[in-house]
Amino acid sequence: MAAPLRPARMWPGDVLKVGAVGLRTRPTRAFLSALGIAIGIAAMVAVVGITSSSRAELDRTLAALGTNLLTVAPGTTFTGQGAELPLTAEAMVERIAPVRAVSAIGMMGEAKVYRTGRIPEVQTNGLGAYAARVNLAAAIGARVRDGTWLNEATAGYPATVLGATAAERLGVGGAGPDVQVLIGGRYFTVVGVLEPAPLAPELDTAALVGWPVAERLLGFDGHATTVYTRSDVSQVESVRAVLGATANPQAPNEVDVSRPSDALAAEQAADEAFTGLLLGLGAVALLVGGVGVANTMVISVLERRGEIGLRRSLGATRGQVRTQFLAESLLLSALGGVAGAALGAVVTAGYAVSGGLAAVVPAWAVAGGVAATLVIGSVAGLYPAIRASRLAPTEALAAP
Q1: How far out from the chain centre does Cα 283 lie?
Q2: Structural domain contains residue 16
Q3: Cβ neighbour number for residue 280 with a 10 Å cutoff
Q4: Cβ proximity of 193 and 137 under 8 Å
């Protein structure tokens, strides 16, 4: 007895060739359909890219306002007296995982600041002397207007950096080796003058000296009066919750911790708004692309019933016919998706360059756009493919 005939197996290469038949025989329609998909995906990628670029610029601007800056300062004891932070406060705060930078200043109440020794003692001009860590400027984003900031070398010598207001009140126009001010009865050379520091306004009226020289020459006891911390933006509230107990484990109630900047709330609100915008516009773009693919494939089935009937009469199975039209739908979607992703990236780059922004095109947007078109294409092509496979050979061949 002869073995039953089995339909030929279609390999992946065969599926691609058969699926491309419809695109090659109707290039104009395929081009217009792919163009519609490309425009939808390009719109989605461009919106994501432009929004991400604007969002990055907004985040940079808000970061300059101190969204992730928290300060720790000594509070009061149960008896109402002033408390002090332990000598280990900075080291303990550094151990908090989300904390990225820690610095500190220590106020020296007895060390008065004067231009010269001839100024009456009562005319302090409201200026204060502070010991400062060498990484303070970087931690709070302070900028030097003239001269230089303290470093490991100058921190051990009688050198000072003046705040913007302090320099103005002392009549100091700039830094220089011959410019000196009197701090705690000793002359210090002015090596730098700061610009106004919006994140730490207390520094505007300060004369800042290195931690080692403050301990050696000005009787500084080494206790920080303000500890500045920079944390991951997403973890600011978590860090704030443990700062007091970490800085002073023995008496956390004697520690004052600042609340997060109002700019952090603004940044979170902006993130939520941007996310909603991205989801809405992306969904509309994908819906338009999916409708275009479905419309093209349904019309293709109606127009090619004769071809379907011929293939079925020559032995093609329903599964093979279904695979052909599904492959055609996926190829059409892939062409439109790749072209749209590339076009969206180009539009984003052009917008960023014209606006002086850094071009940000998230990889997930490009990959997601292409992947979404494949998913949409498979869903949109599924009904036409099933409909094509259900056509009887005789009915399809008899169709006009």
Answers
A1: 23
A2: yes
A3: 11
A4: no
pLDDT in tens, 192-203: 999 998 888 899
Q: Contact at 8 Å (CB) between 162 and 172?
A: yes
User: For all residues of the chain together, what is the average pLDDT?
Assistant: 80
d(CA 209, CA 381): 73
- Distances in whole angstroms, Cα of residue 309 to Cα of each of 16, 17, 22, 319: 20, 19, 15, 14
Domain total of the chain? 2
| Co-location of 73 and 58 in the same domain | no
d(CA 295, CA 283): 18
Task: Please write the tens of the pLDDT for every residue from 82-116.
Answer: 889 999 999 999 999 999 999 999 999 899 999 99
Whether 130 is covered by a domain: the verdict is: yes
Nearest alpha-carbon partner for 256 in 91, 89, 63 = 89
Report pTM.
0.58
DSSP 96: S
Nearest to 287 by CA among 375, 386, 385: 375
Residue 332 placed within a domain: yes
- Backbone dihedral angles phi then psi of residue 79, each to the nearest 5 degrees: -90, 0
Q: Are residues 188 and 108 in contact, defined by beta-carbon separation less than 8 angstroms?
A: no
Tokens of 50: 């432009």
Is there a contact between 87 and 222 (Cβ–Cβ < 8 Å)? yes
Q: Which residue has the tokens 């920080």?
A: 224
- Phi, psi at 129, each rounded to 5°: -105, 135
Position with higher pLDDT, 211 vs 335: 211
Residue 367 CA to residue 362 CA, distance in Å, equals 9
